[in-house]
Design brief:
globular
Length: about 200
């Protein structure tokens, strides 16, 4: 009996995870307004009726997708944190962005596009949740610039993340992945020119 409950719990957890991953992908590809719960259920290979067991509304799925983006970002930054030098960590971040150039050219930045769309809904809610994911990235970048001993690490973080959002948007609008490559090189050169004062 206990084993049967454990199996059901693992199956439920796997379905929820499939739905969350599918929501993150489909919402990035189609946007919030164009995406239906049925689209996400189909992508996750979960019957539509089962979705409501895990997520009561589409906004619950959007929130789960944002959590998925946050988890992906935390996984990436944890991997980069194993590098001994903050400048190398920041360069690694840029390399990760550039490696996703084809995806960015098709759909833009996963979190940035959601933040822009959800921000149009007004104050509070999911727009602020999307902002929290971007804040994770800004805070991580700020720590790297602070470790380099640079004055105004928050400003450097804004410059870096703002440049990423801009190059993602332009790559998407122009459908040119090479925008990410060129701007990634420019950002890397900028990082190399920054003095280390620590």
């Amino acid at each position: 009996m206990a084993d049967s409950k454990g199996t059901r719990a693992r199956t439920a957890s796997a379905k929820r995870q499939r739905l969350t991953a599918a929501a993150a992908r489909i919402l990035h590809e189609q946007g919030v307004e164009r995406t239906t719960i049925a689209d996400i259920a189909r992508a996750a290979d979960v019957p539509v009726g089962n979705v409501y067991y895990y997520f009561k509304t589409k906004d619950d799925l959007v929130a789960a997708a944002l959590s998925e983006h946050a988890h992906g970002l935390q996984t990436l930054t944890a991997r980069l944190d194993r590098l001994p030098d903050p400048r190398q960590r920041l360069k690694g971040l840029i390399e990760a962005w550039v490696s996703e150039r084809d995806l960015a050219a098709r759909h833009g930045c996963p979190t940035g596009t959601l933040a822009a769309e959800l921000g149009k809904r007004g104050e509070g809610g999911l727009g602020e949740e999307a902002g929290k994911v971007l804040r994770l990235l800004l805070d991580w970048a700020e720590r790297q610039f602070r470790e380099l001993g640079l004055p105004g690490p928050d400003g450097h973080a804004l410059t870096l993340v703002g440049a990423y959002q801009g190059m993602s948007l332009l790559a998407n609008a122009l459908r040119e992945p090479d925008v990410m490559v060129r701007e990634g090189r420019r950002l890397t050169a900028w990082l190399e020119r920054l003095p280390e004062t620590s």
